[in-house]
Each structure stands twice: as C-alpha cells, then as structure tokens.
C-alpha cells in the first residue's frame, strides 16, 4: 500500500529547477495518492512555496477554507525518502514561518549579547590598564629660545591603551577566558581572589597577552586602574613646554618618595604589607604574544593556583586529584567554580598537554597559605583523615572484642563438655550397679 493512500494533494508556487506540477503528480500517484490541479473540497494537502504563502495566493485562501494542510515541499520529499507519511505539524507554513522568525530573533539577541560581551571585555582591558601616563626622560637643554605658541595635543600626547586594541578572548565554544579563583579562610571569614584573563587584539593577525589580578585577604577591590599597564612604551613629554617641566618635578617627587621607602627597615615593610595588603596585577604573557604563548601562561597560572591542569578542571575525579596534590604540597589551593549548566565550558583538548612545566615557576603571590583547618580543602582533608582514623580505631576495637568473646565462649564450651562426660560416667556406673 502506498504511503499517500487516501490523500488528495495539489500544489502552488515554484519549487526549484526540475520540480513542476507534472513531476509532483507522478510522485503522488506512484504512491497511491490522488492529484488535483486546483484546491477542491476534497483536498487534504496543499504543497505551497514560500513566495505564494507570503502573498496569500488564491490556492492558499481556498485551502484554508476547506481546512487542508498547507505544507512545504520538504514534507513530500521527506515522506517519500522515509517511505512513510510524516506528521504535517512541523512542515506547515505556519510552523516554518514561526520557526524562521524565532531564529531571526535569537540571532538578533545573540549579536546583541556578543556586542555587549565584546564591549565588556574592552572595558575590562581599560580597567586593567588605565589611561597611560607619560613618563619623562632626561633631555638636553634647548639651545634656541622656545616658541611661545605650543600645541595642546603635542604637549601632552595621549598614550594608547590596551582597550584601544584588545578584548577578552572567546574560544570557538563561546567560553570567555576570564576566570575567577577564590580561596576562603573559614576561621577569619576572609578570602583571597585571583582573576586570570586572556586578551586578544581587535586587529588581524591577532596578538595576545595574559594578565592576572590578585586581591589578598582584606582587599576590598581589585587593583586600581591608575596602576596601569600601557600597551606601548610612552614618549617623554617635551621640556620646551610647561607640562614637561611639571612632569620632571613630578618624577623627582616620585623618586624622593621611593628613596624614603627604601630607607625603611625590611621587617617594617613586611609588617606593613601584612597589615595593609595591596592588590596587584601582572602580565604573565607580554603584549603582542602569540596565542600559544598567552594560552600556555594562562594554563600555567591556573595550575599553580588550583593544583589542577587546565584540561583536568571538568574531570569527574578533579576534586580527588586536587586533594591528593594538596596533601603532597601542604598548601591550600584556590577553588575554581564551573560555569552554570548550559553555559560554555571551553574547548577541551583530546588528551593531556605535556609541556614539562614546573609548578610554581611563575612565582605568583599568595601561595604561602599552609594546609590547615582554616581552608576549605584543608578542612575537608582533615575531616576525612579524622574519619579514617576513627573507623580504623573502631575496627580494631571490634576485632579485639570479638577475640575476647571467642576466648570466653571456648572456655564455657570446654567446661560444659567436661560436666557432660562426668555425668555420663556416673550414670553408667549407677546403671552397672543396678544390673
């Protein structure tokens, strides 16, 4: 029996090269369907093109009146290839039009979200680098009289910023290389934070850089934008202008301040750093680095801070690996929170990446927190160790108790056997006397 038996089908519109009403009729009749050249009261299906649906051709209006299915050509083609009549619901022009409209809306929202994410990445670059402040250099005294007219823009040139040419890198899956790592001190109710970022240039060929930001316990915010990282070596201001003279004075004052700091005792400096921790940021991969260099620095920083390789972060045994390495090193690691369900997790390599990296080579600050009950991982390890010791003690006590019970049970059994032998002996003796 044909798959189109009991169906009355007609068509309207253009379906491409080589597909006309005559060809459609042959396919329909070859599968036991009935073909008509116009919509009638018995029509069950109208195969309609997108153009005729949009302009509401006469056939479309007539099909609506007789409540026939108005489907795309794909319904007939897919049914013939599947060798069974497919459900019409997802092939109707109404459903197809609605789906196309939904896809366009999602595309528009996605573009808007990508633009917002891109601008956010640029703002992050600006916050990390600041505006860039020109640094004066020593210059010779001018031999000619300076000009009375100076250009405002020439006297104080603007230094390019990282934001002007960089944004946060997104991989092919849409994952943004901007991760936050946290280490909590449970007893003091404080936390340390690390932010690792991988930047990509707007221009092609793309160049990259990797930056870390550190906020120690007690730090309220991230490093100030005034502590910037300029994207180019700034030019010295001209000494022929007042701005240049002021810049020299500023540099001299800064030098005097640094000299005063150097005169402080090292122990006092160390104590001040403990009492007043300051955030800092650092470029791990310099500007204009290749992707390989920048991504390697990103992965190494993640490994130094979490004791996990970047490609291990989503493994089922990631927590067990982190605990084992924490025990070996005796230090409290930073924790990485996985993206929420449904969000990109990043492109995962097919296997481990071997680069012979020595953990700790980056010398990141804040990695001197010893393992203790104050840390999240440390407290979990100590609780597990206490539980293990408790179970071992209980097993040993149970073993000893069973041995003692076994010894007491054996003595009672031997006494009972002796009594029975003695009683039987007396009975046998008495019996003999009776006989």
Description:
- It is a single chain.
- The chain is α/β, with parallel strands linked by helices and 435 residues long.
- It has three domains: 8-91, BRCT domain (Rossmann fold), CATH 3.40.50; 128-134 and 159-236 and 255-374, no CATH class; 389-435.
- 44% of the residues lie in helices and 13% in strands.
- It has eleven helices and ten strands.
- The chain has helices spanning 21-30, 50-54, 58-65, 73-82, 93-129, 152-155, 242-262, 266-275, 291-306, 318-329, 376-434, and strands spanning 8-12, 34-35, 45-48, 69-71, 166-168, 178-185, 190-201, 208-215, 280-289, 335-336.
- Strands 5, 6, 7, 8, 9 and 10 form a six-stranded antiparallel sheet that branches. Strands 2-1-3-4 form a four-stranded parallel sheet, with helices on both faces.
- The longest helix has 59 residues, at 376-434.
- It starts with 7 loop residues before the first strand and ends with a helix.
């Amino acid at each position: 029996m044909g798959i189109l038996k009991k169906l009355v089908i007609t068509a309207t519109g253009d379906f491409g090269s080589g597909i006309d009403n005559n060809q459609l009729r042959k396919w329909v009749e070859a599968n036991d369907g009935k073909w008509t050249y116009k919509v009638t009261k018995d029509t069950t299906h109208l195969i309609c093109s997108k153009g005729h649906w949009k302009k509401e051709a006469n056939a479309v209006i007539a099909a609506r009146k007789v409540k026939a299915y108005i489907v795309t050509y794909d319904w007939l083609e897919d049914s013939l290839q599947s060798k069974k009549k497919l459900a019409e619901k997802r092939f109707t022009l109404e459903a197809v039009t609605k789906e196309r409209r939904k896809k366009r809306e999602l595309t528009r929202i996605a573009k808007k979200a990508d633009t917002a994410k891109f601008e956010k990445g640029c703002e992050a670059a600006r916050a990390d680098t600041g505006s860039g402040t020109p640094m004066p250099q020593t210059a010779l005294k001018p031999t000619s009289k300076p000009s009375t007219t100076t250009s405002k823009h020439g006297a104080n040139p603007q230094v390019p910023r990282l934001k002007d040419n960089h944004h946060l890198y997104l991989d092919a899956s849409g994952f943004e290389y901007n991760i936050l790592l946290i280490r909590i001190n449970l007893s003091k109710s404080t936390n340390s934070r690390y932010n690792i970022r991988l930047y990509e240039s707007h221009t092609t060929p793309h160049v990259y850089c990797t930056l870390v930001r550190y906020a120690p316990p007690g730090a309220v915010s991230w490093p100030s934008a005034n502590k910037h990282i300029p994207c180019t070596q700034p030019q010295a201001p001209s000494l022929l202008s007042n701005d240049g003279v002021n810049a020299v004075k500023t540099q001299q004052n800064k030098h005097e301040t640094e000299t005063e700091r150097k005169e402080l005792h090292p122990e006092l400096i160390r104590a001040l750093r403990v009492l007043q921790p300051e955030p800092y940021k650092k470029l791990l991969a310099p500007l204009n680095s290749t992707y390989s260099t920048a991504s390697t620095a990103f992965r190494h920083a993640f490994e130094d801070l979490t004791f996990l390789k970047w490609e291990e972060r989503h493994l089922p045994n990631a927590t067990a690996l982190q605990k084992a390495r924490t025990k070996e090193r005796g230090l409290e690691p930073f924790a990485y929170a996985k993206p929420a369900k449904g969000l990109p997790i990043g492109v995962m390599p097919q296997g481990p990446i071997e680069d012979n990296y020595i953990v700790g080579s980056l010398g990141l600050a804040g990695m001197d927190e010893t393992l203790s009950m104050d840390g999240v991982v440390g407290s979990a390890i100590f609780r597990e160790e206490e539980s293990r010791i408790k179970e071992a003690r209980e097993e040993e006590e149970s073993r000893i108790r069973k041995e003692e019970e076994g010894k007491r049970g054996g003595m009672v059994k031997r006494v009972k056997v002796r009594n029975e032998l003695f009683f039987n002996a007396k009975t046998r003796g008495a019996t003999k006397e009776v006989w």
